[in-house]
Amino acid sequence: MPKIITTVGQRPACLVNASVTYVGNDQIYAFGGFDQYTDEVYNHVLKLNLNARQWSLVDNYGDIPGVRMGHTACLWQGDKLLVYGGENEHRVHLSDVIIFDLKTAHWTQPELSGPTPRGRARHAAVIHDDKLFITGGMTGHENSILGDICYLDLKTWTWSRTWHFVPRYDHSGFIYNGRLWISGGVTEEMERTGELWWLDIRGTPAFEGAPAYGMASEDPSYPAAPRFSNFAVVPTAPPITGNTGYAANSSSVQVNPGPAIHHRNPPLAPAAISSLKFVSGPNVPAQNIGYHFHVFSSGCLLDFVTPASVISSLETSLSAFDLETLKWQRLADGKDLFNPNYRWHYCCLDEDGTSAWLLGCPNQPNRAQGNDGEETLSDVLHIDLRKFGLLGNALSQEAKEQTHIPSSDGNGFSHLSGIGADLARTFDTPPESGSGTDFIITANPDTEYSDMDDDTSSISTVTSENKNGPGSRPIHVHRFILSARWPHFARLYNAQMAEFHTKKMHIPEPYSAVKAFLYYLYTDSIAASPASGPASPIPSFSGLHTGSSPTLEDVAGMLVMSNIYGMPRLHHLCVNRLVKELDIQHAALIFDRASVAQEAWLKRRAASFCMTHWGRIVRTEGFRRLRRSAMLELCEEVDQEGRVVGGDELEAVGGLSGSRFGGGMYREGRKRGRANSSRSIDAEESESVDDDGMEVS
Questions:
Q1: Do the Cβ atoms of 33 and 405 come closer than 8 Å?
Q2: Of 122, 157, 497, 568, which one has the fewest beta carbons inside 10 Å?
Q3: CB-based contact 85:70 (threshold 8 Å)
Q4: How many domains does the chain have?
Q5: Is residue 479 classed as helix, strand or coil in its secondary structure?
Q6: What are the tens digits of pLDDT across the range 409-422?
Q7: Tens of pLDDT, residues 206-229
């Protein structure tokens, strides 16, 4: 379980609807919000130094904004916070833009042009391509829910016109693959939703060019939205002194730069709008249970389901929705992440999406820590997302591009790209053919894991000769490539060890794993070939021709080698692919290799998968090939009070096919313990048939 950090210093109260942003350099900034007990609204700027574990109140200068809550604060240009909107203590919804310079602690307000969007709070904002996109939110004294989208051009500080998108508030927004995605939040029917909406902004002139605005009636090319919150002309507030319309450190009085005209029926956004509804599934998180944080990382929508007072720790989790495959995956159970004695109020990620920080407090404030019984944002939970198979935004984008860029001119049919496809043609080719290979590597024969010595299978020692009997057939490689790509080989060769003189090396690992590892050094890729898709049951790299992608068994072996030779990038790539393609045929093998590689999270993930599908797992070739010690270790993963439940019993409680035990009986909310439900099993089955799956529109 990740360690909880208790902070010191000027810890803020448990603020509601504040903005919390990670700005780099191990610093988190909090701004605004209101006290959940006194309803006092703030405009304080607070900084949390994660290294020192200390909160401090930031002295800020310039055009200091008034108090606000429900605003957004986006990191811009690496050293500025771009704050938009919110609601002040007078229930006035704001539509201003203010900039906080992190280096100088100065506030400035740019001069804006274009049609000012309606003031709002609890909206979503995201910066992309020098544009600040704003979606949804709530506005007015009646808290009307907005369903519009607009953007501010950050080069010209010009607002675009407003289009209709989807009515939401308290939702999340992010940009990925040329699309603006909206997840979670509350609908017009005041229900929390798990629907996912997206808008194709790539290739749409209205979202890629300079803003063009005017009256809706002037542009009849787009149909009007069928329904929208009632809009009207918002009058300009009386002018007051100051560039921002605020007296420093005073309550806010909104001053719009000009009248904002809002149409009752704005046109639909001039791009493809799609949505995805998740009806049910064993890994689909229920949005009406727990407290959810939706964030984006590594091409996935992450859903942190954190503890709440009305749910048990069994209902908390971390799940990921792959935006390429459109599949949910449970990355971790809540009991492995969240201490049930704490609750979390905010979540923020670093720019690369490899680390997440949750800010919260104990359920029962500790007077011994100087809280005086009051709740503060006193505790931080740091979660390293790379341990759950997420590569980070940069590395995942790099891996994604490798599968889409055409191959080189010399090889037009490889799933690899550029130089990787060319080098792959020379891999394991005898020097007589003109390949230029000048080094030989051998490995252990591919033996059954059950025949391996349990005491000697976990650590490899490179030798110039195989002293343990006959080795594999030679693998022809280039010294230059190995020296450039493999630090261990470079050190060994520079020291002029025996391998330097013999031009041979033996690696006491299975041949298929060694060959796949060396092939990675040439291609820098372990991705599955698009033509073949996910790896099929248990063929090995030794049986595939050069140019084929490594199978899951090969990748599992490479995971062990990445741990032995200290290659973190390869380690992350292996974990990412293994968890994405974890299946019945390979689960037992992945458990074994994760255990040898000391990859604790992947080991637990594979063990949980095996326990869920035990009857199928024990009938696979991968399970039969396990070493005896690995087989016993897997069997001991079940808790002491566990038992095997037959298929008939599972079907009766809706736990068949990997569904959460008892999940098929209760469809709404937390209804455990209602064993005397009057609903019949037949009725439950009919409902599950009707609702299973997901809808795309």
A1: no
A2: 568
A3: yes
A4: 3
A5: helix
A6: 344 445 455 555 67
A7: 998 778 654 333 343 344 443 333
